[in-house]
Each structure stands twice: as C-alpha cells, then as structure tokens.
Design brief:
Layout lengths: L6 E5 L3 H13 L3 E6 L2 H11 L3 E4 L9 H12 L2 E6 L14 E4 L4 H17 L10 E3 L1 H6 L11
Parallel strand pairs: 1-2, 1-3, 3-4, 4-5
Antiparallel strand pairs: 5-6
C-alpha cells in the first residue's frame, strides 16, 4: 500500500452520513471506493473492489450485521475494518477482526484525524504515536503497530 492512497469502502445505511464520510475520506487523501447499505452489498463490494480499509456501522439496513461484515472483509477479502458505531459495547472482545472503533457521535475533525492516523499505520506498518482522541484500537492491532512497547521520542 505504500506510496498510494488507501482505498476505502463505506458501509453505512444512513445515506447522508455515508455521503459525508465519502467527502471526509477524500479530504484526507484516501480514495472512496463506494458505499454499501446492507451486509450482502458490503461483502459483495469488498470481494470485488478489495478495499484497504472499510468503515463499518454495526447496525445496517438489514439489522445488526456489521460485525459479520467486518469478520468477512477481514477473513475473506484481506481488508482492514474499522467500526464507526454508537453501539461500541456491542462489539466482541476480538473486535471481529477490525482494527478499532470510532464511537458515534463523532466530529468531522475526529474522523479525519483517525483516518489519517490509520492511513499511516496501514502504509508504514506501525503507529506514528498514540491513537487520536475518539479512536480506540483493537488490542491485536495496537500490538501489531508497536503500541505495546514504549514509543521512541521521534515517534
């Protein structure tokens, strides 16, 4: 992924929020691949488009299926999922393979900061520092990106 913009799939059933997220994704230098409003649509798009990152709401138009979508994108498509949800407590302990969560409601600045941070993590394979406010990393990804050890002064 290094040297190119991240390809991002948005999995959100509220159309206005999905459109806003597309705008924010593009504004931080990533490429919005499209939007899915249901689990089947999300998995189909992820299989065809192979996103680097998928922003996923837990509760979609076909019910609380976002957790299953995250698992399938992670396991079947090799993509990284990030939850964006007001239902943070509904996430399983393993985050369903997702790298983390942004709790709703969230600010435009918070989403952009989290996306820029994750773009760095995904392209460099390590965290540039602690996660920004509003972004909670899954323990597995925190360890993968070097946050289980003290950060160097240059990070």
């Amino acid at each position: 992924m290094s040297g190119k913009a991240l390809d991002v799939l948005i999995v959100e059933d509220e159309m206005l929020l999905a459109i806003e997220l597309e705008y924010l994704v593009e504004e931080v230098g990533c490429h919005a691949l499209g939007c899915a409003m249901s689990a089947d649509e999300a998995v189909d798009l992820a299989a065809r488009l192979r996103p680097d990152l998928a922003l996923i709401d837990v509760h979609l138009s076909d019910g609380p299926t976002g957790i299953d979508v995250a698992r399938r994108i992670h396991e079947d498509c090799g993509g990284t999922a990030l939850f964006m949800t007001a239902n943070v407590k509904r996430l399983p302990e393993d985050f369903a393979g997702a790298c983390g969560v942004i709790g709703k409601p969230c600010s435009e600045h918070g989403v952009k900061t989290a996306l820029a941070y994750l773009a760095c993590c995904l392209t460099e394979g390590r965290a540039p520092g602690l996660p920004p406010v509003g972004l909670t990393l899954a323990p597995r990804y925190a360890q993968l990106w070097g946050l289980d050890q003290p950060l160097s002064k240059s990070a």
